[in-house]
Amino acid sequence: MTEPTPGPTPAPAVTLAPASSADLPSFREAFEAVAAERRWIGTEAPIDWTERGPRFEATVADPAWFVVLAKDGERVVGWVSCHDEGGGPVSLGMGIVDGFRSQGLGTQLLAAAIGWARHRGAHKVALEAWPTNARAIGLYEKFGFEVEGRYRRHWRRNDGSLWDAVSMGLVLDEDAPGGPPPGDS
Length: 185
Description:
The structure is a single chain. This protein is of the alpha+beta class and about 180 residues long. Helix content is about 25%, strand content about 30%. Strands 1-2-3-4-5-7-6 form a seven-stranded mixed beta sheet, sandwiched between helices. Strand 6 (about 145-155) and strand 7 (about 160-170) form a beta hairpin. The radius of gyration is 18 Å and the shape is globular.
């Protein structure tokens, strides 16, 4: 008699919640952990928290910003941030701590971000990704994002290398007219 094959490991229980000032220490740990990997987000270690800390505080107080944190107990294990400057697309950034990836957390975070953008009446959500991050690009495409362009040798890394980035967008308003009206030249 053969032993049954175990199923996939269940995803850890996480809750999504808007960020608050009290989340800064845990967010800092999560952000530093992802940045230290030097392959998923643009920010690299070491991080200047003297500068970034007040920005986080301002972000959680500003209704034009939305930060959702995923917590495993009280520890932040992922985040998505959205910024709406009004008139332009909502810009999005996200990260998930190693050990919590490929378990549906990115899907939950991205759904929350898109829901927030729709609620604000945004016409589009835009982001950049490394072209080598197939997992993230696949997630964004699952939600309807399309690659809109490639920035060649766009971001200088701490080691001096220049990385490409892809621009992706999700159009939320397909009904508004596009482009300027024809005019006299």
